[in-house]
Amino acid sequence: MKEKVKCLIIGSGPAGYTAAIYTSRANLSPILYEGMQPGGQLTITNEVENFPGYPDGITGIEMMEELKKQAGKFGADLRRGIVTACDLSKKPYTVTIDGKKEIAADTIIISTGASAKYLGLPDEQKYSGKGVSACATCDGFFYRKKVVAVVGGGDSACEEALYLAGLAQKVYLIVRKDYLRASQIMQDRVANHPKIETLFNTNTLGLFGEEFVEGAHLVKFLGEPNEEKFDIAIDGFFLAIGHKPNSDVFKHFIPTDENGYIKTQWGTTKTIVPGVFAAGDVADPNYQQAVIAAGMGCIAAIEVERYLNSIEE
Ligand code: NDP
Fold first, then answer.
1. How crowded is the C-beta side of 214, counted as CA atoms within 13 Å?
2. Which residues are catalytic?
3. 204 lines ligand 1 (CB under 6 A)
């Protein structure tokens, strides 16, 4: 028999846990499934310096442990498991966990976040776990005193480059444009770090190495008259080129934008399906900040409560 729940929360980043705190305090007995990456992306980030209330910063892992504790304290049922299928065509909605367990839910909060993107080079797969990574905090340790490259020009790339510069002998930052799009504070830190060399107007063509990555084939001014191909010797190749929202499993029922972000009614977390809400990075193409995800989780929880009240009336 299907387990029945008033509110099912999918995902365990700041949006999911905030929704769990609010819905459990509202006596909705939520069940939260943690998803592929328990604690979400903050668990693979280094220091969180911009979440209000932490003047000295806090590690992403610590922050997520605290959020989880807070959600558990108010009675949210926090479980391991990944949503593998769903049927949002009729009420109560059905969600399948790990391909077997089915849950019938009156309301759902989708807070499945986003995952790191890759360039799409065959070499990324060839050297996966052998020098290619999308998580400096997870794998940086292996590159102590070595030479690494980070691809990307946003805040993630700068953060990864700076983190790796604390461990490695040298860090190349490979940026396809002639500028960084990261926040000014991060740009300044990168520019002033003696171990980071930024290669502007540069793209990656491939990687090389016997078994592990030993270098990258790069090109400067791709497609321009002054195009110039060159190689760099590196031991590690880190991707930080943005994220793809984890919305695939819901796409059949819920419209997304061209990049896969779930569409919500402006100013709310309401999706096209009544009683199904989306919060955090999976529904946020613009900001992707922990504090905003937490805020969206709060909005979703309040909307769940109002929705349940409206259908009970
Ligand atoms: P962004 O989308 O901001 O940046 C992605 C970067 O990768 C861009 O420089 C982009 O280049 C580059 N890129 C994308 N595709 C390719 C490709 N195929 N080849 C080469 N380069 C590529 O993503 P982030 O993950 O950095 O940040 C996402 C959001 O999260 C932002 O809003 C950011 O501010 C936020 N964030 C905030 C942090 C903080 O506050 N501490 C930390 C990390 C993220 P181009 O510019 O040419 O498009």
1. 4
2. 135, 138-139
3. no
Distance 165 CA to ligand 1 centre (A): 19
Question: What's the number of domains the chain is made of?
Answer: 2
- The string of pLDDT tens digits covering residues 81-116 is 999 999 999 999 999 999 999 999 999 999 999 999
Q: Whole domain around residue 212: which residue ranges?
A: 118-239
Give the Cα separation of 88 and 91 in Å (integer): 7
Looking at the structure, do residues 40 and 127 belong to the same domain, yes or no? no
C-alpha angle 80/81/83, rounded to 5°? 150
Of the three residues 200, 222, 239, the one that is the final residue of a domain is: 239
Note the pTM of the prediction, 2 decimals: 0.83
Q: Which residue's CA is the closest to the ligand 1 atom numbered 43?
A: 156
What confidence tens digit (pLDDT) does each residue in 265-305 have? Answer: 999 999 999 999 999 999 999 998 999 999 999 999 999 99
Q: Is the CB of 290 under 6 A from ligand 1?
A: no
Which of 239, 268, 285 finishes a domain?
Answer: 239
What's the token pair of residue 237? 């190749």
